[in-house]
Write a structure and sequence with these properties.
Blueprint (H helix, E strand, L loop, with lengths): L8 H14 L6 H17 L4 H11 L11 H11 L45 H4 L2 E2 L5 E2 L18 H14 L1
Antiparallel strand pairs: 1-2
Helix pairs in contact: 1-3, 2-4, 3-4
């Protein structure tokens, strides 16, 4: 890991002042870090280390409620966590930010109907025509599925004399 120069107290105080102006009392740490992570990462890419940034944030009064001072590793981990995608809404839900709200009078979309082809025998292979995809009422192709079959369990077959002898040899070895 490359060593970075230790900034002077004046530089730390100046950076702490910059952070203090960006911080408002009552802010939540992680959203604030998410908002300013580009600036923090740019500082680290330059002359600043995570430890000196942690010191500047602590001097600015930007800490969790415990008032415990930041550490370099702790700040780096929190900035990384703040950069992870939010889990605020499911990915398949319609987005209200794009302005695509379904109209109240429009019918709800219907799932495509599947044409299932059942082969004559459950053990017979379906013909190539049966494996071709069917099309739904909109002309899109949908796959056809072969139904599964559950076979009854087969009875245990009796062991041969060779298998019995081999089992006994293994049993003696493992004692």
């Amino acid at each position: 890991m490359p060593f970075k120069r230790q900034p002077s107290d004046e530089e730390l105080i100046q950076l702490a002042e910059e952070f203090r102006h960006l911080w408002q009392s009552g802010n939540v740490i992680r959203p604030w870090l998410r908002k300013h992570q580009a600036r923090l990462r740019a500082l680290v890419a330059g002359d600043w280390s995570w430890a000196t940034l942690a010191d500047a944030l602590t001097r600015a009064g930007i800490t969790y409620r415990s008032k415990r001072p930041w550490t370099g590793d702790g700040l780096r981990a929190e900035v990384r966590r703040a950069g992870l995608p939010l889990k605020s809404r499911p990915r398949d839900a319609p987005s209200t930010t794009t302005g695509q709200i379904p109209a109240a009078d429009s019918p709800a979309p219907q799932p495509p109907s599947l044409d299932v082809v059942i082969p004559k025998s459950t053990h017979a292979r379906p013909s190539p025509a049966e494996l071709e995809p069917a099309s739904d009422n909109r002309g899109r192709s949908v796959p056809r599925f072969k139904p599964g079959a559950i076979r009854p369990p087969e009875p245990r077959r009796p062991l041969t004399q060779d298998e019995i002898e081999e089992r006994e040899v293994m049993r003696r070895r493992l004692r």
